[in-house]
Every structure is written in structure tokens, then in C-alpha cells.
Design brief:
Number of strands: 8
Largest sheet: 8 strands, parallel
Enzyme class: transferase
CATH topology: TIM Barrel
Helix content: 55-70%
Structural class: alpha/beta
Radius of gyration: 21 Å
GO molecular function: transaldolase activity
Order of helices and strands: HEHHEHHHEHEHEHEHHHHEHEHHH
Keywords: Cytoplasm, Pentose shunt, Schiff base, Transferase
CATH superfamily: Aldolase class I
Catalytic activity: D-sedoheptulose 7-phosphate + D-glyceraldehyde 3-phosphate = D-erythrose 4-phosphate + beta-D-fructose 6-phosphate
EC number: 2.2.1.2
Strand order of the largest sheet: 1-8-7-6-5-4-3-2
Strand content: 5-15%
CATH architecture: Alpha-Beta Barrel
CATH class: Alpha Beta
Shape: globular
Number of domains: 1
Length: about 375
């Protein structure tokens, strides 16, 4: 039997795991995903670390040691997270070497508390980059108004960046501009750009979660059955349409003379990364967002359950450029219905930052409780 996860490689898509869990790293479960399923990257975020560190007892020994050393709550979190990220980076290092730096990356995210602080974000990015000290590290920076200049500066300094929490195509253009201008700055100064890696993380399923609810609200507000049917037909369609149109923008931005000049000096494209591809609505196919966004020069970060489901019954086809005309029409129809693209994509980014902040709060509270129980300092 063929493995659909391995078939994705033939169409130019890389699979990264949207999870970091120490027990999986130590048990060999992560390594088996690399060896058997072709996994070639991993990403962490505050929500992932909050879940892992509060439910996985393999962290307890190191946590107790750090508490005994008098580390404060943030120092404990960072020590635990950096240990995990180094373990992942080392297990993915053969992939990084084999692909000449194209894959084999692990991402760690800056504190969501810094989402509106450019200088603070840069300070943390530099600290993570130098402390973890792995060439196959990417540091995640939210693509907020304060994050965009931090993304550009970090890339200009030669730090690999995962630009995350992208929901709108305009925000995506800003991320690409930051990437290209950073490479141009380095190139002008005679610095190497061949080994700088970056991805642009476009969040997918969360779009449908919000838009479907907004469409339901609209349907409840009208009595015209035909109009209700027109609105219902848009449900479950907007997230994929949005990502497919973003991919069209990716092709445009990385095919012109501006990038070609950088490519001649060894630059790589900044690949679109599809994040949040697990299906949230049980009425939809459980691998919908994976099957419909397959294409070259893309990355899909899948949660463990999504990887299992796709391995079992995923269907692989070159789908990323299907129904582009229909995608444009769907977004136009949404606008006509009074659901404004700029508004809901901004809401999603704001909510994304808040979710990560909430996860940080919960994680820090858990660590703080353990630290206090052993008499540690604040």
C-alpha cells in the first residue's frame, strides 16, 4: 500500500508536524514519522507548549531541577522549550543536510506578549537564535504591524524566520516584501543569502470557523429562502479560496525580475506554509484542508491526528490551483453579503495573538504553581 504522506513530496509539498512533545522525541515516535512518513519539519507555538508541558510528565525532572536552581517562571519555560527545540533540530538535522537546507526545520515562537513590540520581539528573536544555536532553527514572529519590521530586520541579520498568523493576502504581501527587501539589503552589503530560509504561515481552517458563523448569522437575519441558500453555499469554501488566491500571489511575487535577481545570488523562495489545517467542523471531511491545498513549493503543518487521518485515507492530487475563478467569486459574494474581508481577517489575527497569550498565561500559571510548591522564587 502506498503512503499518501510520501506522495505529497512528488508534488513538491513538505509535511511538517504541528506539535512538539518530549515523550514523542525520547520514545522514537517522532523519528518514525521522519523515517516512515517523510516528515521534514516541526513547529511549536505557545498553545502546543502549554499542552505538552502541562500533560507530559517527562518534563517534570528538568522542571524540578530548574526550580531547585531558583529559576523564575519565564526562565523555566524557556529552558524547557529550548531543550525540546534542540532535540527536534538535532533529529531533523539529517533532513536539513540531505535537502541542502530546504527542509528539516523546527520553529519556536516569540512571546505573544510582544506582538505589538518590535524592539522587544527582535531582542527575543536574537536571544533564541543564539541560545539554541542550530542552523535549522526558524523563529516565529507574528505578522502583526509591529511584527513585520521585526521580520525584515531579523532576516537581514541572517536569522531564519517563520512569519506566522497570516490571514489576509495584503498581510501576506507585506511579509513577502519584508523577505525580499531583507535579502536585497544583505546582497547589497555583500553578505551571503544562500542559506537564509523563511516560510509564510497562512492560517486556514480558522477562516471557515469564523466566516461560517458570520454566514449563519446572515442566514438567520433574512427570510428569503433563495438568499439563505446562496449564503449557505459559501460555508466551508472561504478558507480554501483564500489560500488558493494567496498561492497565486506567491507565484506572481516570486516569478518577476526582482526575485530572479536574488535567485541568481542563491536566494530561495519563501514558501507558503498552510497552518491550522485540521478540520474543526465535524460536518467537513477530516482531511479537507490538506487535500485541497497540495502543490509545489508549499509546506503543510499537520497536527498528529491529521497526519494519521491523511495516512489512512488521504487523496493526493495537484489541487492548489483548482477553481481559481470560483475562489475569486466566493470572496466577492462574501463581500456582497456584508462580510468584509479586511475586517474578519484582522479579527482572526487579533484573536490568534490573544489565544497564544491565553496559552502562555495558563502555562506560566502551571509552572508558577509547581515552583511555589517547592519554595522557588518568583
Amino acid at each position: 500500500m502506498t503512503n499518501p504522506l510520501l506522495e505529497l513530496k512528488a508534488l513538491g509539498q513538505s509535511v511538517w508536524l504541528d506539535d512538539i512533545d518530549r515523550s514523542h522525541l525520547l520514545s522514537g515516535q517522532f523519528a518514525s514519522l521522519v523515517d516512515e512518513d517523510g516528515l521534514c519539519g516541526a513547529t511549536g507555538n505557545p498553545t502546543i507548549f502549554e499542552h505538552s508541558m502541562t500533560h507530559d510528565t517527562t518534563y517534570d525532572e528538568q522542571m524540578q531541577q530548574l526550580i531547585a536552581e531558583g529559576k523564575n517562571t519565564q526562565e523555566i519555560y524557556e529552558a524547557l522549550a529550548m531543550t525540546d527545540v534542540r532535540l527536534v533540530a538535532d533529529q531533523l538535522r539529517p533532513v536539513y543536510e540531505l535537502t541542502d537546507g530546504q527542509d528539516g526545520f523546527v520553529s519556536i515562537e516569540v512571546s505573544p506578549y510582544l506582538a505589538a513590540d518590535t524592539a522587544g520581539t527582535l531582542t527575543e528573536v536574537r536571544r533564541f537564535w543564539h541560545a539554541i544555536a542550530r542552523p535549522n532553527l526558524m523563529v516565529k514572529i507574528p505578522s502583526t504591524p509591529a511584527g513585520i519590521p521585526a521580520i525584515r530586520q531579523a532576516l537581514a541579520e541572517g536569522i531564519n524566520i517563520n512569519s506566522t498568523l497570516i490571514f489576509s493576502i495584503e498581510n501576506y504581501r507585506q511579509v513577502v516584501e519584508a523577505y525580499l527587501s531583507a535579502l536585497e539589503e544583505r546582497s547589497t552589503q555583500g553578505q551571503d543569502i544562500r542559506h537564509i530560509a523563511s516560510v509564510a504561515s497562512f492560517f486556514v481552517s480558522r477562516v471557515d470557523v469564523l466566516v461560517d458563523q458570520l454566514l449563519t448569522d446572515q442566514m438567520n437575519a433574512v427570510s428569503d429562502l433563495v438568499r439563505q441558500q446562496q449564503l449557505r453555499a459559501l460555508q466551508g469554501k472561504i478558507a480554501i479560496a483564500n489560500a488558493r488566491l494567496a498561492y497565486q500571489e506567491f507565484k506572481r511575487l516570486f516569478s518577476g525580475p526582482r526575485f530572479q535577481a536574488l535567485k541568481q545570488r542563491g536566494a530561495r523562495v519563501q514558501r507558503p506554509l498552510w497552518a491550522s489545517t485540521s478540520t474543526k467542523n465535524p460536518a467537513y471531511h477530516d482531511v479537507l484542508y490538506v487535500e485541497e491545498l497540495i502543490g509545489p513549493n508549499t509546506v503543510d503543518t499537520m497536527a498528529p491526528t491529521t497526519i494519521e487521518h491523511f495516512r489512512e485515507h488521504g487523496r493526493v492530487r495537484f489541487s492548489i490551483e483548482d477553481q481559481i475563478t470560483e475562489a475569486k467569486a466566493a470572496l466577492a459574494a462574501l463581500e456582497e453579503a456584508g462580510i468584509h474581508y479586511d475586517q474578519f481577517t484582522q479579527q482572526l489575527q487579533d484573536e490568534g495573538v490573544q489565544r497564544f497569550s491565553d496559552s502562555f498565561n495558563q502555562l506560566f500559571q502551571c509552572i508558577d504553581n509547581k515552583r511555589k510548591a517547592l519554595g522557588g522564587r518568583q
